[in-house]
Amino acid sequence: MPENMKKWQLLRESFIPATIVMAFLFLAVFFVEIKVKMDAEKVVVVEIESSVGTTAAILEEDPDDELRVITASSGGVAQPEAGPLEALSGAQTSSSAPLAAETGSNARKLEAEAAAYYKSGKLELALGVFDRLIKAGGAGAGAYFDRAVILSSLGRQDEAVRDYRAALSVNPHHYEANYNLGVVLLRMKDVFGAAVAFRAAAESTGGPRKANALYKMGSAYMKLGAGKYELAREAFEQAIRVQPDNIPARIKLAEMEPDTPEGYERAIERFEKALRLKPNYAPVYFSMAVFQSSRGRVKQAITSYSNAVKFNPELLEARRRLGVLLLSERRWSEAREQFDLAVKKDPDDAKSRFYLGRAVFGEKNYKAAIEEFQKAVSLSGGPYPEAHMNMGRAYSAVGDFPRAIQAYQDALKTRKDYHEAWYNLGLVHLRQKREEDAIQAFKAAVELSPSFQNAWFNLAVAYARAGNEAESIKAYKKVIDINPGHKQARLNLAVRYARGGQLPEAIRLYKEVLEQDESYSFAWLNLGIAHYKAGDNEAAAEALGRAMELEPNDLKARLYMAKAKLASKDYAGAVHLMEQVVDMDPADPEWRMELAGALRKAGRAEEADAIMKKAKLLGTKGRKTDELEVR
Question: Which of 347, 438, 544, 631 places its Cα 20 to 30 Å from the Cα of 534?
Fold first, then answer.
């Protein structure tokens, strides 16, 4: 055998490549790009304007870390550009376990040819060479293993499983074949079969490779649900016994702690132990932040994400998630700082542009928000309904309703079930006094999301403006069914009953609102008006007095207090109150007309005529004496 070939075979059989493999595996587990699934991209608009952020995302399972290897007769390794990892296959090519029956220089030449094809990404050609070798008969475990790797790379998973098992029939203790079989079975959703394969891989080796296989086995058991959690826990604990600094296993044990205060504390202790083993290690801070966020500990998660980006400023996903949590806390400028840094790191990242738009929107820089949402759409390379929807909000905020409508419609073209987009579209129509269009949009929103209370509320408002009192009442009742503590809906429902002449029902509802919030001045005002219309002037005066205490400048409360005094024949008191109203708003003719009426009832006709004349000179305005409704 040539000297160079001997040296390469020695290197192949040494422990060094295995060490390199585990290093790459370890990095692959933690630096995987994680998909962000946040309801942060879904904006729920409360009432007319404000928005609520969504909860944090959950850490995804490990990357697809199938060992990708091609062996030539010299033990050479080839890796396609798409492969996440380079590793030694462990396939035997010695005379004790030949790669193929065809031996000698021709076999070695074919093996080298296959390796070259594989390395250059010509997988079909490499596959053809291995087909020839295996068809010749007498193939060893290495040939089946390498062909399985190619088949898996081509997406032919069933055939890859066949060849991994063929390799294992020749060498049952082939670590890479067992490990890759587990990876492919996971990909095929055969989670239990994957766990069995990872167990076999663990039993075939020792050291860090054994620990990694045990970790994968535990992860597979976790996927099988709570019934297999004990097996998963045992696998992770065994991985730690084999390799005490196995950080992934420690993280999984932390994630498995129950959602109780005690479980949370134990989990944090596990994360802190991992950090003592590997201080300032950004991936541990990242995983701890994801765990804390999933348990609703937003402030703690923000601290952990901050540490992750402190110790690894290049960890873009941690920076993005930190920014999203800051958005949920309405810490707009801090969120903007994170997304500014993310955009500097990767100017073409559509999600970072989207979130930057959210942050500057929160700062009320609507023009900048529109620009960032437009960039997000352009960079996404496909539909981005969340960006269109938020772009619509920004256009609406600057009063550009036609562009807002177009943006919402663009969002709905690719996501017809986007109930937030339907809702915001309804708000724009409502602002433009297009009640029927608003009703249709709000109805679409509640059909898609039956518990969307804000959509029901504004649907009720739209029905009321359209004059459909019956449907408005139904919609307000639906809001109260969803949220019995929704005082605005209860107050508006009472207004609907009051305007329909159902004063006892209105009074009952106003009192229910005040049981929830005694400081709600609108409710006291409307209760006073309802009592006045029902002829109970004493109760009216009591309620209106409370309204005036809470809102001393409320002109309508003083007006109805004056009306109650007139009804009780306290003419002097009524005139005094109306004079106060006119002094507070002298440009409004309506108040002067009410004062003239009070003066006339008090027997001061001459003064009443003079006030009426002045009122006519000021012109007329719409009546403002109805009950107040929250919109």
Answer: 631
Asked whether the predicted pLDDT for residue 536 surpasses 90, the reply is: yes
Q: Give the CATH number of the domain where residue 308 resides.
A: 1.25.40.10
- Tell me if residue 365 falls in helix, strand or coil: coil
Identity of residue 407: A
Strand partners, 71: 77
* pLDDT higher than threshold 70 for residue 75: no
Q: Distance of alpha carbon 612 from its chain centroid, rounded?
A: 61
End-of-domain residue from the set 281, 306, 330: 330
CB burial string 475-514: b at 16+ within 10 A, e below: bbbbbbebbeebbbbbbbbbbbbbeeebbebbbebbebbb
Average pLDDT of the segment spanning 606-611: 89
b or e along 200-224 (b: 16 or more beta carbons within 10 Å of the residue's beta carbon)? bbbebbeebbbbbbbbbbbbbbbee
Residue range 599-611: mean pLDDT, rounded: 89
Residue 600, domain extent = 572-623
Mean pLDDT for the stretch of residues 377-401: 96
Task: Quote the tokens at residue 223.
Answer: 């996927």
In the DSSP assignment, the letter for residue 52 is E
Is the alpha carbon torsion for 574, 578, 579, 581 positive or negative?
A: positive
Average pLDDT, rounded, for the chain? 84
DSSP string, 371-401: HHHHHHHHHHSS--HHHHHHHHHHHHHTT-H
| End-to-end CA, the chain | 88
Q: Clarify whether residues 281 and 326 are in a common domain.
A: yes
Q: What is the DSSP letter of 34?
A: P
Residues with Cβ within 8 Å of residue 41, at least 6 apart in sequence = 54, 354, 386
How many domains does one find in the chain? 3
pTM recorded for the entire structure: 0.72
Are the CB atoms for 406 and 380 separated by under 8 Å? no
